[in-house]
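Morning!

As promised:
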Amino acid sequence: MAHHGNAGYDMTTMTTFQKATITEIEWTNPHCQIRFDATNDKGALEHWTLEAPPPSMLAPREWVRKSLQAGDVITIYFHAAKNGSPFGIIQKVEFPNGKVLHAYPDRDTAPKSE
Amino acid sequence: MRNLLLHSAAVALGLVVLSPASVAQTSPPANSKPGAQVQTPDLSGDWGAPLGSGGGGFIISDPGEKKTGTAQDDTPYQPWALAKLNSERPEGGPRATFENTTDPRIKYCDPIGVPRIYLVPTQFRFVQTPDIVYILYQYGPTWRPILMGRPHRQEPDPTWWGESVGKYEGDTLVVDSIGFNDKTWLDHVGRPHSDQMHLVEKFRRVNHDTLQMDLIFDDPKAYTKPWAGQKIFKLQHGGFDDAYACSMSEYEHFQKSVTDPVVAPKK
């Protein structure tokens, strides 16, 4: 059983979707999960799953369980899986009103194992 | 003799740094002589890894962070301990792998143990009473009682968290622990220890927002000589009440829904 580390993600590249539609949030350990749909630059709909910090780490970063809800349309930033699958590790989200919620602090280096 | 060696090691490593700062006069403990005044350092607050440090890191390193958790660093492993380290499959550090981990806290939700609990990106808090200092950990959540001013029992039975006694030395809380089982890892890379581990944790609030923890590992069964570690924590603002619980069912769900597809071979 494995869950930690970010060896499976490309931490050198930030992927962004400007109109991501949230489909599901799982507020669980060892990591929360965020699922969204977005249209790629070829017009195809993609279904993504991102891992996020656990609730105990998101809470001090001003997240609550209902910060993101199904149907919300936001801009989302994440590091995608190296194997090309539609998975990633989230960095932050930006709401239409300009509010930003960080899942991990912005920094020069990638988030380490948590 | 071992205590003498330990003390010598601590002095040689410069781990005992006393300062009159942040020391408060408090009521004496129940078992002290009448009229005695005990200085109790104020360790109040919630403590955690500095923001942006990427959680708690992978290992308990020395102050210069020269240790990397590999066979090449200067950790004084006994041969079996080095072989065991090399046989582990950790999910953190230079040998990180996503597949078939041997990490007992991930594989089984085993108690994470001490000092590894200081490496998870969660918080902890001291509750200082005259007789017992409780360390409350957000991870678990769990807690350890530190029995103040008392000696260890003779050969306490081994447990996940050991037996801890404590005292104040100036502005420093000194926690002395024995009686551990050998089932936990010292850190995320898989450094082992034996049931003979004698761990000393020294907590000192170097300023209002900063807590320094110095460690001495004395485990002759696993290491050829005592060695030291250090970590710095920062005062946290919020979040302590949100406990981190280890749940095998949630871990298994995460494994299937995220980890497995992420580690699958590239199509």
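Residues 17 and 41 of chain A are 10 Å apart (CA to CA).

Hope this helps with the figure draft.
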